[in-house]
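Worked Example 4.2. Consider the chain below.
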Amino acid sequence: MIHWCRQTLKLKLKSNYFRNYFRQISNRTSGSYWHSRGSFTFSNATLGDLVDTAADKYGDSVAISVPFQNINKTFTQFKQEVDQLAAGLIGLGLKKNDRIAIWSPNNYEWVLTQFAAVKAGLNLVCLNPSYRAAELEYSLNKIQCKAIVTAESFKLLNLYDIICEAMPEVPNCNPGQMRSQKVKSLQYLITLANKSLPGTYKLKEIQENDGNENRKVLHQRQKIIQFDDPCTIMFTSGTTGNPKAATSSHFQLINNSIAFARKMGFNRERVILCLHLPLFHAFGYILGPLMTLQLGGKCVIPSEVFHTPSSLESIQNERCTLVYGVPTMYFDMLKHLSDSNYDLKSLQKGIIGASPVPEYLVQELEKKLDIEILNGYGTTETSCVISVANSPTDRYSGKPVEHVEVKIVDKDGNVLPFNTKGEILCRSPYVFLGYWEDKDKTDEVLDSSKWYHSGDIGSMDEDGNICVTGRIKDLVIRGGENIYPQEIENLLIKHPAVSEAYVVGVPDIRMGEELCACIQLKPNQGIKEKDVKEFCKDKISKFKIPKYIVVVEEFPKTESGKIQKYKLQEQCTKLLKL
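Applying the procedure from the previous section yields the following structure tokens:
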């Protein structure tokens, strides 16, 4: 018997060896292609199922902590409040697949709405709280939103006033009876304000409208919601200059977060996450409370917007083991740490994404925080994560997560040799459903073989590590915010002194990139930098206002008259000595 067991063990070890060996060599192709086979079975849960399962499994453990609101909710309490709000939304008359927008900085109510909306069978539309009236109007109309949940304010912006600017009828409408000429689909305005605002419901009023009949409808609706149904719509900059509405299903979001968690080893430990990323971004939305809910972890939201002392205090007081951020956040944390003392020994890992990562920043973080710093790569359209670096040797690239294929191609779509730069393409079950009711734009990025064309430039080594080096798309990423220059250019040329204007991204140590506006003036006209910035104020979001203004005599152009932005970028970088 002992001899037989030894032989069986030897065979099993050999079997595992050869299985792993053949899995490795099967990925070695003649070109830049890699398929990360998955060793986990896909989940067919919906986001509503996650809430129910977590309450059953983790009960009285704390699920959500929001120190600045003095809120701590257990998994059981969270499920109760999600069900209450979901039933209340149904009580308003919202039908399955109706769109409900949330327009707010980070807070507990954001997370509550996130899960209540999808549990009621609605599509949650995530809006940037920096939007001005025109941006808000465009987004609501694009998706034909029927309801919006909004904070009263964001930083110095009064969001209710902006709503009234976009929809002047609001103050004269009864709650639930919105009739706007500009946004005809919108019927319900729900505010997070404690006071009553004309034309709006308070969120607490909706929660209290969760009667037995509404609960019955919620229970029935849960039965017909499918895991492949769309559930979340996130805006992302596009090649037209207007943001596009990337639509994802329950299946895509849940399984991508599982793949990420497994890659990082989070499925083997209780994660306590300090989340200071905005929840309306895919990074924060998918890898924040959605992931921690599945794992029985705790999601700590330290402040409405990133505030360095609040984040460091939360890491210390809540004993956080994990923190996310874009490079600018980590720069600010390091700067604050040099002036203050915090006990951050609980931290184990930090994830950087959404922007180019300077090597020395990683070195400083590992030195001063004594934690592992890893880099993630992905897009909204891929349900967030394509690859994650999981060792010091590949932190700047990383292999694709499970169930993901990646290839690097030339302009004709041919797979390139290893270590050759080209466009990064991704194919996986996590790739989004498409841009909301925009087949043409969807077809531009999702080809007939279901490869997603990222527009990013990169290369791949023989071991499948991806190195992202640039972007094809005329897109500027400033501190993690995606900015499309055409929107700013369209505004600048409206200035009476401006003949022509183009905006490019130039290097910046802290923000990754900053905006530089290159302006050609009309004859006999003059302009100052402060005049340009003042002209932009209140017409576009603050983060879209160019930091640098350069007046030029002429622009570099092709023979056909097209602007050569890469040359303009080079000239500005040199001129500004960046």
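The mean pLDDT is 89. The radius of gyration is 25 Å. Compare this with Example 4.1 before moving on.
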